[in-house]
Specification:
about 120 residues
Amino acid sequence: MSESTAYSTLLAQARAGEIYLNDEAAAFHMFKACDDRLADLREIFGITRRVQNVSGFGDFQIGKDLEKKFVMQATGDPNSIDTVVMKDIEAVEQLREVFAISFKRIAGKDIENANALDYASAQVS
């Protein structure tokens, strides 16, 4: 995909240090929300692979035409479900990185290495 989007522009600005979320808790929770969303989208993408193999409409030409239409909706078209889901995955990955950059800028450590329990106990103290 890799086309320029609002999310890729936001990520470029975050990488350049021009912008970041200045609330540690918000950055942490948004990062985790992105993780959850990515898991959901990857599951949906797995389902889209199954709908790419449509059959059972019969041997008549109209059945073959209908099969082609369903396959085109599943893949091979700019608005097909697999392309749309992949664009969503790319956008969420870019947002996730923006929040990771923000967390690192504020907390001084990578969010992937930050222990959620340590983070929670630091917020209570």
